[in-house]
Specification:
heterodimer, A: about 475 residues, B: about 240 residues, alpha+beta, Alpha-Beta Plaits
């Protein structure tokens, strides 16, 4: 008789979801499924809205990465206006996106995942939170909080507030950078870079403790996709799309992101509101690919900043196929983000007053892309003659990873669950696979620590065989 | 014209007998909330937020249209008045689709500031979620009926100051809504002079300039009092 194990809700991620694990008659795992149980509806309800409102509406998709939505949306609106935005506006947008990548990565690594990484996957549930981390290793917790704080402060200085800043608008940004704010940000960066780099070193020394997890946490060959710069370097704001295979050989290169539909299609599954994009030539579900920090660092030829490039050399020695190394990639990207912000703030035109272009709608179709903390984010709009939205398609970073997340939890569940026997540590590992991807399932739902975990053992006829709650 | 004395909120005050309670209160820094009243336009008394209690009368009276009289005793604040004002503002929110966080007038909106001043931090009535279509056909301006509270300031300024009478109200009761000309798209209006006065007097983000993003639309209705003064001087 088959059984089903349900983990509901999945904790320490952004949003609402559950996992079901299906066992065969022998008690062995057949399949695990990741269900996203919420529906947002942004693509539909923005129809009829004036396109100039889109960035501020779209930023409300997410309270963790509103800046990436602002940027992808504003870029799509730039195209609707057919303008080339002032160069300083592009640089300022790039800076605020980098600040957001840094703060979001700090949130993911330190607040959500460090309890597992410091205290261990089998640590007592009451201690497995950022509070437990603060008790066991206060400086680690302090460093995580500091890194997130600095990222958020940069966003606030540029955009006026930390969450949902309305500063990024169609045509550029609505205020140039003041020299006072530039100096304040520059003064914070050395400490941020030092802390972030020390955290990369700390985590390098921890990897030996997680050999088993590295070998089974979504460890399989897939394609990787991200933006790249003109010379193949790490890129978060503009550039070309590149897909590589698990040997880092490009299968798609220098593709204009607006042509994303030529290589990506989306499948809909009955078990989840999250669609499953796949690489068209390999079909569904064979066209599985991953995005986000792991993909970006596999794809980029360099980070183009000093300390991040040193760590990138170590990253290249790691197991290419394991999603466990999302964590490592995330830390390197924090270093990169702060170093890159420092470079950009020292450019001579960064205080230019002309930071916004104005225009009416001049094209009926607009497309914007950015690298969000979790991966490649695409906004695609169409408008009528009056500038009202008639069509909206969003490709969210977490969606790209859906197939890999499902395959990943199946792999981990098969490895750890033997004869249907469960333990808290095993269930935590299955959740931890999802956490490596740092999925963002909604805007502001942000749970960590002792969220209720409800596990049910179901017979194939629906009978409840066993149940535990915490 | 003669001077009368009256009491507002236990303060003994004086005013001209052709002034309203609202005018006398305002002259003495006593705040009474309003949304439809605007200096320089005719009074309409439609929003009912300025209702006050006049001793000797069981009915509440709108301060914007009630003239002061000798010996009048007025209360502008009470639990009953506060409850009415709360309900009126909540009903304005539920009748339309007011999403402050993404509105062009966020932080520059009279409906929003009125709600804040009244301490409204949630809406207890059910939302109606009406389906209303944005009119962006005008070359320079947008009309978003989702944010319209039917204060009729635009109707009055267009008729009384600009003399175009492009705006009017169609329908009855809950189905009342603004129209331009004979219910044509604003961009096709032959009477509209594109002066923008309606945009400047609109208390919410319902009428705004094209190209504005969230929170960027700041209105300047003070031009009305300048026009009023200049026209007086030319008489």
């Amino acid at each position: 008789m088959g059984k089903e194990i349900i983990i509901d809700p999945v904790t320490r991620i952004e949003g609402h979801s559950k996992i079901t694990i299906h066992l065969d008659d022998a008690g062995q795992v057949e399949q695990a499924l990741f269900h996203v149980t919420q529906l947002r509806g942004f693509e539909k309800f923005v129809e009829g809205r004036p396109f100039h409102e889109m960035p501020s509406i779209m930023s409300r998709i997410c309270g963790i990465c509103p800046v990436s939505h602002l940027i992808a949306s504003a870029k799509a609106c730039d195209m609707l206006m057919s303008v080339r935005i002032p160069p300083v506006a592009a640089k300022l947008r790039r800076i605020i996106n980098l600040a957001q990548i840094a703060q979001s990565h700090a949130l993911s690594f330190f607040y959500l995942s460090s309890p597992d990484l410091l205290l261990g996957m089998d640590a007592d549930i009451s201690e497995r939170s950022i509070v437990g981390v603060a008790r066991a290793n206060p400086s680690l917790a302090r460093n995580g909080i500091k890194l997130r704080q600095i990222g958020q402060q940069i966003i606030e200085m540029l955009g006026g507030k930390r969450i949902h800043p309305g500063w990024v608008v169609a045509g550029g940004v609505n205020n140039p950078l003041s020299s006072e704010h530039r100096n304040q940000i520059l003064a914070m960066l050395p400490e941020a870079i030092t802390i972030a780099d020390s955290m990369v070193s700390w985590f390098t020394n921890q990897l030996g403790r997680f050999k088993e997890e590295i070998s089974v946490f979504a460890n399989f060959p897939t394609l990787y996709m991200s933006l790249i710069g003109e010379h193949g370097e790490l890129e978060t704001y503009d550039g070309w799309l590149r897909l590589v295979n698990d040997h880092d050989t490009p299968v798609v290169d220098r593709l204009n992101p607006i042509d994303y539909k030529s290589i990506i299609d989306e499948a809909v599954t009955m078990h989840s509101y999250l669609k499953s994009p796949y690489y068209k030539p390999l079909g569904y579900p064979g066209g599985i690919y991953r995005v986000g920090p792991l993909a970006r660092l596999h794809i980029a030829s360099s980070c183009d900043t000093e300390l991040a490039d040193k760590s990138l050399a170590i990253f290249r020695q790691l197991d290419h196929k394991s999603s466990f190394h999302y964590h490592y990639a995330r830390l390197i990207e924090i270093v990169y983000a702060f170093e890159k912000i420092q470079q950009l703030l020292n450019e001579k035109d960064i205080l230019d007053d002309h930071a916004r272009a104005h225009a009416e709608p001049n094209a009926h179709e607009g497309f914007g892309v950015a690298e969000a903390p979790r991966g490649t984010l695409m906004h695609h709009y169409r408008i009528d003659d009056n500038g009202l939205i008639t069509y909206c398609d969003l490709m969210i970073a977490t969606g790209h990873n859906n197939l890999a997340m499902n395959k990943g939890i199946t792999q981990t569940a098969k490895h750890y669950i033997k004869d249907g026997s469960l333990s808290d540590g095993i269930l935590n590992r299955i959740e931890a696979v999802i956490r490596t991807f740092d999925p963002c399932l909604s805007c502001s739902t942000h749970a960590f620590g002792a969220m209720p975990l409800h596990i049910q053992l179901m017979a194939s006829d629906g009978t409840l065989l066993d149940e535990t709650k915490r | 014209m003669r001077v009368v004395t009256l009491t507002i909120n236990d303060q003994l005050l004086s005013g001209r007998d052709d002034e309203t309670i609202l005018q006398v209160a305002k002259a003495h820094n006593i705040q009474i909330p309003t949304l439809c009243q605007l200096d320089g336009l005719s009074t309409w008394g439609g929003c009912r937020l300025c209702l006050v209690h006049i001793h000797g009368s069981d009915k509440l009276s709108p301060a914007c249209v009630t003239k002061v009289t000798e010996g009048m005793v007025v209360e502008t604040e009470s639990e009953r008045l506060n409850k009415y004002r709360h309900t009126i503002v909540e009903m304005l929110y539920t009748e339309g689709n007011h999403i402050c966080s993404v509105c062009v007038s966020n932080n520059n909106c009279e409906l929003q500031s009125t709600a804040q001043n009244l301490g409204i931090d949630h809406i207890s009535l059910p939302y109606l979620y009406p389906s209303r279509t944005v009119d962006a056909s005008h070359e320079r301006f947008v009309f978003d009926p989702n944010r319209c509270i039917l204060c009729t300031r635009c109707v009055r300024v267009c008729d009384e100051i600009e003399g175009a009478h492009t705006w009017d109200v169609a329908g009855r009761g809950i189905n009342s809504h603004l129209i331009t000309d004979l219910n044509e798209a604003w961009g096709e209006s032959t009477s509209c002079t594109s002066c923008g006065k309606c945009v400047e007097v609109c208390p919410t983000g319902s009428l705004y300039e094209k190209g504005k993003a969230g929170g960027e639309m700041v209105k300047h209705a003070e031009f009305l009092t300048y026009i009023e003064e200049m026209r007086k001087n030319h008489k």
